[in-house]
Amino acid sequence: MASLSGKFVKVSLPKPHVALVELSRAPVNAVNSAFWLEFDQIVEKIGQETDIRVVVLASSLPKFFTAGIDWHDSVTSIQDFENYDKDPARRALQIRSSILAFQRAISATERCPVPVIAAVHGIALGLAIDMITACDIRYAAANTTFSIKEVDVGLAADIGTLARLPKVTGNQSLINELTYTSRNFSAAEAKEIGLISKIVDGGREEVIEEALKLAEVIASKSPIAVTGSKHMLLHSRDHSVEDNLQYVASWNGGMLQTSDLKSSVQAALTKKKATYVPLGKPFSKL
């Protein structure tokens, strides 16, 4: 979809109801401020498209998912701190505001109302972990090399890795080790700790193909059921069991009235494929 694509992020519709979003800033997908602002805007727009039910996040570059932050851009940003308020507390608030904007951009896939599948290959460093942990499902090609790189450049990861990674994995000790050492780890180790759910033999083409197959299955389901499930899973991650039970009861008080329920049951009884109407567009902001 050329209308949704930008300078650094390309969008296409390779399957019905499925958007393929490809990071595309040669030579290594280093992310500068223009890149992450565009990424935020494009994912936001995709979330408002009524007929897109699943997103696959990938890279257009053969050897790189992303090498992480563009440090040339970041050095310039750090030098810009000199232009901020001279009072340390006020300067800290200004820097904090910049970090929050960056966090919001990379969290766009988590806010997206439909599931986002990360299809990772090649080099996936630093910000790559922030980006994929905000996605719902993560597949990786066998040739993927990961690293939580931030300690090597003198900072604690602040865009999402340290907030989400312990929640999506099952080995806190190893997460701490990977964070403190910044060492590289393989797709096999990523699967062992639960960062990814599937290793795909091959590279970029193979992992995207596998992710698109999964996306096609999810896109065939009721969009009301899928978007509600994503919403509830995120709520469950951050709330108690009782809070989530109460919340889903209130949610389904409205959602059980959907025509999708009747369509799904009829399809199951008749052994035919169900058809669902698109989700409605959200109201414009006042």
UniProtKB/TrEMBL annotation:
Supply the InterPro entries for this chain: ClpP/crotonase-like_dom_sf, Ech1-like, Enoyl-CoA_hydra/iso, Enoyl-CoA_hydra_C
Q: Does the keyword Transit peptide apply?
A: no
Q: Which UniProt keywords apply?
A: Fatty acid metabolism, Isomerase, Lipid metabolism
Quote the protein name from its UniProt record.
Uncharacterized protein
Which pathway is this protein assigned to? Lipid metabolism; fatty acid beta-oxidation
Q: Which domain of life is it from?
A: Eukaryota
Q: Which SUPFAM superfamilies match?
A: ClpP/crotonase
Q: Which family does it belong to?
A: Belongs to the enoyl-CoA hydratase/isomerase family.
